[in-house]
Write a structure and sequence with these properties.
Enoyl-ACP_Rdtase_NADH, alpha/beta, binds nicotinamide-adenine-dinucleotide
């Protein structure tokens, strides 16, 4: 038990488990090992079914609540239900992103107005909306973590509109940190290295990126979802109490390399 993190029985909302490959699922396992009480949100019924099976298989007792981050009413009713059941929330993990497939193929310059707005709404504004919804429940202070990617500040073929959404997400983390800090609520982003998940399937150059990282990253390997999960647990717990507004790379060091 990682009790030095002081997460025993803390209520933590996890948004974004689609299946057992989701980064959010590894986050859940790490937080569970640290003794946290988990509250999952899902968008689609099929994710809820998978989630319930995973919880059963892993003998984890947790609440499962519907929340579509594109829909304000859905966010309001999800957090009202969380408040009713748990009163207080100590942490929130935002592991949600989506863009239209056609906007990840071809050139960024061809992104449609609608595709640009959709990627921003789902992948960046959603953090602002859920931070606002959870704030009143974090009366004892709290920690929020979101997932970003290197495409926020570097050009990667096939990441396109999602890179621009991640740039907005990282800037939102800084502005939110400033708003939430006086309430003792911290917020940070983890910039994860490439990990084979459902969302990663949409990135056409994904296999190429994986092999480049293995070849060039200081650790000469890719990272696992478990490593991202453990860093999230670190950011949720007391050991990181002085850290907010940061983007922390869990990428085997790949981001520091210039021309390799
Ligand atoms: P994933 O497909 O397992 O998770 C994405 C989740 O977003 C899914 O659970 C999906 O249901 C959810 N989602 C999408 N639209 C939603 C909506 N409107 N409302 C609620 N939920 C919605 O893939 P993942 O790789 O685990 O992605 C999690 C996060 O990690 C994303 O922000 C992604 O950009 C980020 N990330 C992934 C990688 C990678 O290589 N896999 C690297 C860096 C960052």
């Amino acid at each position: 038990m990682k009790d030095f993190l002081q997460l025993q029985d803390k209520h933590i909302v996890i948004m974004g488990v689609a299946n057992d490959r989701s980064i959010a699922w590894s986050v859940a396992q790490s937080l569970h090992a640290a003794g946290a009480k988990l509250i999952f949100t899902y968008r689609q019924e099929r994710s809820a079914k998978k989630l319930n099976k995973l919880l059963e298989k892993n003998e984890m007792d947790a609440a499962v609540i519907q929340c579509d981050v594109n829909d304000d009413e859905s966010i309001t009713s999800a957090f009202a239900e969380i408040k009713e059941k748990f009163t207080t929330v100590h942490g929130l993990v935002h592991s949600v992103a989506h863009a239209h497939k056609e906007d990840l193929n071809g050139d960024f310059i061809d992104t449609s107005r609608d595709g640009y707005a959709f990627a921003q709404d789902t992948s960046a504004y959603s953090l602002v909306a859920v931070a606002k919804a959870v704030r009143p429940l974090m009366a004892e202070g709290g920690s929020i973590v979101t997932m970003s990617y290197l495409g926020a500040d570097r050009v990667l073929d096939g990441y396109n509109v999602m890179g621009v959404a991640k740039a907005a997400l990282e800037a939102s983390v800084r502005y939110l940190a400033n708003d939430l800090g006086p309430d003792n609520i911290r917020i940070n982003a983890i910039s994860a290295g490439p990990i084979r998940t459902l969302a990663a399937k949409g990135v056409p150059s994904f296999n190429e990126i994986l092999s480049k990282v293995e070849e060039k990253a200081p650790l000469r390997r890719n990272v696992s979802a478990e490593e991202v999960g453990d860093m999230t647990t670190g950011l949720m717990g007391a050991l990181s109490r002085g850290v907010t507004g940061e983007v922390i790379y869990v990428d085997a060091g790949f981001n520091i390399i210039g021309i390799g």
